[in-house]
Design brief:
single chain, 211 residues, 13-stranded antiparallel β-sheet, 2 helices, 36% strand, disordered N terminus
């Protein structure tokens, strides 16, 4: 999960969204919500949730790049990724780290919302990228995975006007391929597997270019 919809037309919008998703920590997908809802969440539920900690992600960029995400026991979320990406129309786009919050949706699953600020090569603010994602931690607590089906990307321009919304499930095709993250601990790093390229994941049009 981790920086990279990744404005003027559908093709550009899709490519930019994919870039944003990669930069934003390559968000996770979850198809079911369990009995533990956000309304039932308590400080102890949050602190004991297996998502809490520091995770190493592999972004679905070309070439793939790592990012690090932190899930705090208070529901805070930070994803640190490369500071820029290349857009076919806008050139080099600079993006801040993704900052946001999370809440439990199940014993091992969450809903997170994060936002990053974007600017161009001349340091002009160009808008924001918002990511909604649904990580689910493995039974052993050492990885999380994303099937990409529920990830939603929202782009706003410099006036905070929504430019486009992509993904989010339903009849919308996924905007990110399945991705895995590994829990970080002192010692040698264990990098997660490389994600599939956007052109190979379910819902992508044939020949869809990678961001």
């Amino acid at each position: 999960m981790s920086h990279n919809t990744q404005h003027a037309n559908v093709a550009l919008t899709r490519r930019t969204a994919l870039s944003g998703v990669g930069m934003a920590a390559a968000a996770l997908g979850l198809s079911q919500v369990s009995a533990v809802t956000a309304q039932e969440a308590t400080p102890s539920t949050m602190a004991s949730h297996p998502i809490v900690g520091v995770w190493l992600n592999m972004n679905a960029t070309v070439p793939p790049s790592p990012s690090v995400s932190i899930y705090g026991a208070d529901g805070s979320f930070v994803s640190v990724s490369p500071v820029n990406y290349k857009d076919t129309e806008r050139g080099v786009v600079y993006a801040s780290d993704l900052i946001g919050t999370w809440e439990p949706t199940g014993p091992r699953s969450i809903h997170l919302t994060g936002i990053s600020m974007e600017s161009d090569a001349n340091a002009n603010f160009t808008g924001t990228f918002t990511l909604d994602a649904y990580p689910e931690v493995s039974a052993d607590g050492q990885t999380w995975t994303d099937d990409g089906t529920q990830v939603k990307a929202t782009l706003r321009d410099a006036t905070n006007t929504v430019v486009t919304v992509l993904g989010g499930g339903g009849d919308q095709p996924p905007i990110t391929p399945p991705v895995m993250a590994t829990r970080m601990s002192p010692g040698p790093l264990v990098f997660p597997p490389m994600p599939e390229t956007p052109g190979n994941f379910p819902g992508a049009e044939p020949g869809t270019p990678a961001p």
